[in-house]
């Protein structure tokens, strides 16, 4: 058997915190013996009866002489009683024994140590298990209290590695996750997240209890009261000690909260519905985010920790009427323009995917009141072109290139400084393509090394219009420059080498902002106004593509994709698949809010390899991973050129697809600006195997579709980011007929 994590455990204070550690270590066989120390004889008796301690004594001095190196003393008494325990330890602690504690404030423990030993001794490892509850006492102790809870250790410079590791191992043996933090940071974080809520809960219940109507108040108190005030049942001595010990940090937290409560009061008094909605929607978003974090589903850093593997079983066909989620490009722009407009903008069909949500959160962080999203409906309370406020910190844009590049344009003309950051993939993508033209307009922008994020934008620089000739076909660059143009003196124009998606131009026009368009050139003059209105976001043709390709390649398939945006700057996938022989019909064509929309019917038909016309590349730029899957199923060779841009998307999509296709037995040769794929014609086109999507949503979904024509199961790694553009993909794919599961 492995060595126990600690020798003897002496628990000074056998309440909820100390008793639970003792029970957990005993259950895990992680200590040789537990000695309980309590002030009263009957508590000692109780600790023995509950199986918390093997021995229990009322005096610490009694047990110290028997301790030896490797043993641990855990001080689990109220914060202000820690010092008296330290004094008892001072002269009688045998060498090599580790001392740690569980107090909620660490600064006062360090002070107590300094008073006792003249400094923090090397054997003291201050710690704080974040697992308390409103219950207290030995009878509340449980052996599973710490499982999956965090314990913060705050070692100091003089803390010895050996003692630190012993305490770390001890908590891990109890099932906890151990982190470290400086003392001061710990106390500030806890003041805000734990101590302030306790103060408020005690204060609220005390206020209501003093009310002459209190009996009735408590009688009618509903779930809200119960949820909000549970912690007012916590141990008063413990909390008195905590607030006295962490005075300064708690006072700062109370001041911040009081200012906010005063603002809330004024808004209620003034009937200021916008401010109220602002506070409530921001709070709801933050609380929901916290809930998702707990469930490990948040879009921020936590998402990267989540491993999602797709298991796609071979064969089958697809059928049915399907509505894929809203268009990502339009969803981003609806939030941006809606926020900068005057008045209310109501959006229907908004994409509730992580990318568009990152844009939404960025504007919330800049003070815009945004209701929803609720089943695709979002209501934006526009603040006007000059109404954005300084965000509280960097704007984190997750995986979304569109958010970062378009926001760079919008923010270059603001009066405040702002930093834009992103996840690992976004942090590798080129940003000089937007930073350079913005600098030409007079903006001050710093990037990370080699023009990568973060982008640091300095406010207060007056922009002037430029005539910008784009070096590459990019709607993001075009949109960035035009959006900066809203803030520039004079005229700003862009000229693109090939047509790219024109949602920015269309939506600006829809918001009543004049945009001149003449062939490849688009221009506008700064200083105008946007007027809020209604936006109907159609289904995203880029998401519909996966089902178009699925139906095209799988014999016996027929799908109807409803209400899909078929803007002529986005329809390359239809043209390319049709040129390969796909059976695609556009039904019920109509125009919705300035954008062409149709239902798309696709039936299986044999495909033939083609040389993809270069003028189609920008019109199908996001659809190539799926088109490569179609090419692998077609009869003969497909050649793509002029698509070097694919190398700077969420992954290098040429390399990522070539690697995966080769693993699945397809002859696919990458070239600097494209790929050459030898298609299989009829029958299975792919073997089976494990491919890596590299965290790129479109690569992940493309290989899932390939399974329809595979001989064996395809495992696809790193699929969590499918949620950036296509939440619910797995469920919809299953409904359509794919045999797809998440692992
Ligand atoms: O403007 C947009 O909404 C987008 C433009 C394209 O990027 P580029 O402009 O980099 O080609 C596209 O790949 C991206 O998914 C969305
Ligand atoms: C390239 C894409 O998005 P973005 O550039 O916004 O990250 C995409 O969705 O395929």
What features would you describe in this structure?
The strands form nine sheets. Strands 3-2-1-4-5-6 form a six-stranded parallel sheet. It has 26 helices and 34 strands. It has four domains: 8-181, 3-Layer(aba) Sandwich (Rossmann fold), CATH 3.40.50; 188-271, Orthogonal Bundle (6-phosphogluconate dehydrogenase C-terminal fold); 310-322 and 538-742, Alpha-beta prism (UDP-n-acetylglucosamine1-carboxyvinyl-transferase, Chain); 328-536, Enolpyruvate transferase domain (UDP-n-acetylglucosamine1-carboxyvinyl-transferase, Chain). The longest helix is centred in the N-terminal third of the chain and has 28 residues, at 183-210. With 743 residues, it is of the alpha/beta class. It binds shikimate-3-phosphate and phosphoenolpyruvate. Its EC number is 2.5.1.19. Keywords: Amino-acid biosynthesis, Aromatic amino acid biosynthesis, Cytoplasm, NAD, Oxidoreductase, Transferase, Tyrosine biosynthesis.
| Record field, number of beta strands | 34
Identify the bound ligands: shikimate-3-phosphate, phosphoenolpyruvate
- Categorize the overall geometry: globular
Share of residues in strands: 15-25%
Structural class designation? alpha/beta
Mean pLDDT: 94
Question: What quaternary form is this?
Answer: single chain
CATH architecture of the largest domain: Alpha-beta prism
Number of helices: 26
Main sheet makeup: 6 strands, parallel
Low-confidence stretches: 296-304
Q: What is the CATH fold-level name of the largest domain?
A: UDP-n-acetylglucosamine1-carboxyvinyl-transferase, Chain
Compute the gyration radius: what is it? 31 Å
What portion of residues is helical? 25-40%
CATH class descriptor of the largest domain: Alpha Beta
- Ends apart, CA distance between termini: 34 Å
């Amino acid at each position: 058997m492995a060595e126990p994590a600690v020798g003897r455990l002496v628990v000074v204070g056998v309440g909820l915190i100390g008793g639970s550690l003792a029970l957990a270590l005993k259950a895990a066989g992680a200590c040789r013996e537990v000695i309980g120390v309590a002030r009263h004889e009957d508590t000692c008796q109780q600790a023995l009866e509950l199986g918390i301690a093997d021995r229990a004594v009322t005096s610490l001095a009694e047990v110290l002489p028997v301790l030896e190196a490797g043993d641990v003393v855990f001080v689990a008494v109220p914060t202000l009683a820690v010092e008296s325990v330290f004094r008892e330890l001072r002269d009688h602690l045998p060498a090599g024994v580790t001392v740690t504690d569980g107090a909620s404030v660490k600064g006062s423990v360090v002070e107590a140590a300094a008073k006792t030993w003249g400094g923090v001794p090397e054997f003291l490892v201050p710690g704080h298990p974040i697992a308390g509850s409103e219950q207290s006492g030995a009878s509340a102790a449980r052996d599973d209290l710490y499982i999956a809870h965090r314990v913060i250790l705050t070692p100091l410079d003089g803390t010895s590695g050996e003692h630190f590791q012993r305490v770390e191992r001890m908590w891990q043996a109890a099932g906890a996750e151990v982190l470290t933090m400086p003392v001061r940071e710990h106390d500030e974080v806890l003041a805000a997240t734990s101590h302030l809520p306790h103060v408020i809960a005690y204060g609220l219940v005390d206020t209501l209890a003093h009310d002459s109507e209190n009996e009735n108040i408590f009688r009618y108190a509903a779930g809200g009261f119960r949820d909000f005030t549970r912690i007012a049942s916590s141990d008063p001595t413990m909390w008195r000690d905590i607030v006295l010990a962490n005075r300064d940090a708690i006072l700062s937290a109370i001041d911040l909260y009081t200012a906010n409560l005063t603002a809330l009061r004024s808004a209620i008094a003034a009937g200021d519905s916008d401010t109220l909605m602002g506070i409530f929607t921001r709070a709801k978003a933050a609380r929901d985010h916290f809930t998702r974090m707990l469930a490990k589903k948040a879009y921020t850093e936590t998402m990267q920790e989540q491993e999602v593997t797709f298991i796609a079983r071979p064969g089958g066909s697809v059928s049915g009427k399907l509505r894929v989620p809203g268009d990502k490009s339009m969803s981003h722009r609806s939030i941006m323009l809606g926020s900068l407009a005057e008045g209310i903008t109501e959006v229907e069909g908004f994409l509730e995917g992580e990318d568009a949500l990152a844009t939404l959160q960025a504007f919330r962080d800049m003070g815009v009141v945004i209701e929803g999203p609720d089943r695709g409906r979002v209501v934006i309370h526009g603040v006007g072109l000059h109404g954005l406020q300084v965000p509280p910190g960097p704007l984190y844009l997750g995986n979304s290139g569109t958010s970062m590049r378009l926001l760079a344009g919008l923010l270059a003309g603001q009066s405040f400084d702002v930093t834009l950051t992103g996840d690992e993939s976004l942090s590798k993508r080129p940003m000089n393509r937007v930073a350079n033209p913005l600098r030409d307009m007079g903006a001050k922008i710093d990037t990370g090394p080699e023009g990568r994020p973060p982008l640091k934008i300095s406010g207060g620089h007056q922009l002037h219009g430029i005539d910008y000739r784009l070096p590459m076909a990019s709607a993001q660059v075009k949109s960035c420059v035009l959006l900066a143009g809203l803030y520039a003196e004079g005229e700003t124009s862009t000229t693109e080498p090939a047509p790219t998606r024109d949602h920015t131009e269309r939506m600006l026009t829809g918001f009543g902002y004049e945009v001149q368009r003449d062939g490849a050139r688009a221009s506008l003059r700064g200083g105008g106004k946007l007027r809020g209105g209604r936006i109907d976001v159609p289904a995203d043709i880029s998401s519909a593509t996966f089902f178009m390709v699925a139906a095209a390649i799988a014999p016996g398939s027929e799908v109807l994709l409803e209400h899909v945006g078929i803007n002529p700057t986005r329809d390359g996938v239809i043209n390319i698949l049709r040129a390969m022989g796909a059976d695609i019909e556009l039904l019920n064509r109509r125009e919705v809010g300035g954008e062409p929309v149709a239902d798309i019917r696709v039936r299986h038909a044999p495909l033939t390899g083609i040389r993809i016309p270069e003028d189609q590349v920008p019109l199908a730029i996001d659809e190539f991973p799926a088109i490569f899957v179609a090419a692998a199923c077609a009869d003969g060779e497909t050649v793509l050129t002029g698509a070097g841009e694919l190398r700077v998307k969420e992954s290098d999509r040429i390399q990522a697809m070539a690697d995966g296709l080769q693993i699945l037995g397809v002859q696919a040769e990458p070239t600097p600006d494209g790929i050459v794929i030898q298609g299989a014609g009829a029958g299975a086109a792919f073997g089976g195997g494990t491919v890596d999507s590299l965290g790129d949503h479109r690569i992940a979904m493309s290989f899932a579709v390939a399974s329809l024509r595979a001989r064996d199961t395809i495992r696809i790694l790193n699929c969590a980011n499918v949620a950036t553009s296509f939440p619910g993909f797995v469920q919809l794919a299953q409904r359509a007929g794919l045999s797809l599961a998440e692992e």
